[in-house]
Write a structure and sequence with these properties.
With about 55 residues, the chain is of the alpha+beta class. It has a domain at about 20-55. Helix content is about 30%, strand content about 10%. It is built from 2 helices and 2 strands; from the N terminus they run αββα. It has a two-stranded antiparallel sheet.
């Protein structure tokens, strides 16, 4: 994919540009067809409750 050239992250990589990734870690929710459902802060808020399901 060309995301991690030696010495760091290639912030000019096509995947970085396509999904407008600005920081790592980066959260994205994708459905079974590959459609992007949520990204960034919205995805993190969506994922949060799922991560805590086992604790309940």
């Amino acid at each position: 994919m060309g995301l991690r050239p030696k010495g760091g992250i290639n912030w000019d990589a096509p995947l970085i540009s396509k999904y407008r990734i600005e920081t790592l870690p980066y959260f994205a929710v994708v459905d079974e067809t590959g459609k992007l459902i949520a990204q960034g802060d919205a995805a993190q808020r969506m994922i949060g409750p799922w991560m805590n399901e086992d604790e309940e």
